[in-house]
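Intended use. Records like the one below are meant for learning the mapping from a protein sequence to its folded structure. Do not use them to infer anything beyond what is encoded.
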Amino acid sequence: MRTLDDIYEEYEFLDGDDRYRLLIDLGRELEPMPDALKTDATLVRGCSASVWVYPLDGADDGLHFLADSNAAITKGIVALVLAAVQGQTARTVADSDIAGALARFDLKNQLSSNRTQGVPNMIALVRQHAARIATA
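Structure written out for the chain above:
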């Protein structure tokens, strides 16, 4: 997975439609999430599309999440969220300002409110998973 900095470097030079295409491409680059992990427990609430996020235990090597969505652009947005945290320690992720890291993408002004309404819930779920692992 590309780093958030690498993604932004490309994103900042694109305009509307090309930014949509980049988000869709990011979603396609996500590691496949097995259907068996797409459960009510991994479902992100409050998203207009279905979004699932599953943490893999990676305490020694940093956190690793699997994610999927039934909507292409939303899947790209969750890929952005994961790019901000993949490979970091659980404590770092639990304490991090993921929304702040994503602010430079200005998603609220680039996408409809329908597409971005679930972003805080995606972030909260990732941080909650990280906090649970960090305290275990």
